[in-house]
Amino acid sequence: MDTSDQTHFDFTVPPGHHENLRLDKYITQFVQNATRNKVQEAIKDGHVLVNGVVEKVSYKMQPGDRIEITLPKPPPPVAKAEEMTLDIVHEDNDIIIINKPADMVVHPAFGNWTGTLVNGLLHHAETLSEVNDPMIRPGIVHRLDKNTSGLMVVAKNDRAHAFLAEQFSRHDLERSYWAVVWGQPPAEGTFEGNIGRSRSNRKIMAVLDEGEGKRAVTHYKVIEFFDYLSLVEVRLETGRTHQIRVHFAHNGFPVFGDVTYGGTAIRYGPNTGGRKSMYDNLFETLGRQCLHAKTLGFVHPSTKENVQFDSELPGDFRNVLNKLRVNSKV
258 catalytic, yes or no? Predict the structure, then answer.
């Protein structure tokens, strides 16, 4: 088989808490988009070597073990048009401004081949840019996490895409997010810390030591304090994966409802009475991190004028704020 049709992974188990972890579980933690069933199949089919030898799925990992994985690449899927309702804030010959709802994936990927924003855009727009993987991500200049709602700009042609991408690379855009976070941070501040893949779990991001990862800077100010939570406005100086969620969690203020970065652990004092059930109910009702991309501003590709767009908070976000305001004593 041509090696261009294969995906290779090669890593060594570091010393520490991974000792005696099952081979299949270890790989599932460290290989993005890997499911336990797929990993077990790969091991049984001989696509995984431990120190050059095929081992059982139950093999217990030891520090210094070298894992080599060689898998055939699946054929690239092609995104298909799907009729769906899109919340379009603005559209012209160059761009579409979308207010993306929570629970919508931006483009097709492993586990989400349909129902994405791209599927809807292909049905809606006659043309989309082809700069960035036209089979899967036509028009997509930047992304929002699946469970983050808010504004995105989509390019309808390659010229607009290149012009917008340059602004993103220079961090010249104006982007503000609103978030509900645990705790009461200082009234305003800046979080700095390089962000990259977590050493302990390659599926998530983390703040890393200097010299590792990529530079990330997050500015914020508090809009409103509650008993144990705060509403903050966040402005990004850089745009790293999960930047807001990682920076706030790293500094002790995880985004409310964020399952990945500790935002569902209830952080309240000893005298909260029945409020634990209130927070539990809010988690269940919200079902996601309380984070919304509220404003987006940039230089328009054709007019070369500064344009800015704003969005209302979605209903689930407003519901959280209403409940907090009614029950807060601050």
Answer: no
Residues 6+ apart with CB under 8 A from 251: 185, 191
Separation CA 5–CA 74 (nearest Å)? 8
Could you tell me the pTM of the whole model? 0.78
Q: Which domains does the chain have, with CATH numbers?
A: 3-72 (3.10.290.10), 88-170 (3.30.2350.10), 174-327 (3.30.2350.10)
- Indicate the DSSP class of residue 191: E
pLDDT tens-place string over residues 154-165: 999 999 999 999
- Tell me the CA distances in angstroms from 25 to 16, 57, 64, 177, one per residue in order: 16, 8, 17, 36
CA angle 98, 103, 104 (to 5 degrees): 45
The single residue of 24, 65, 94, 145 carrying the catalytic annotation is 145
| CA 111 – CA 133 distance, rounded (Å) | 18
Residue 1 above 50 pLDDT?
no
Helices 315-327 + 275-286 axis angle, to 10: 170
pLDDT in tens, 37-86: 888 888 988 889 999 999 999 999 888 889 998 876 666 678 999 999 99
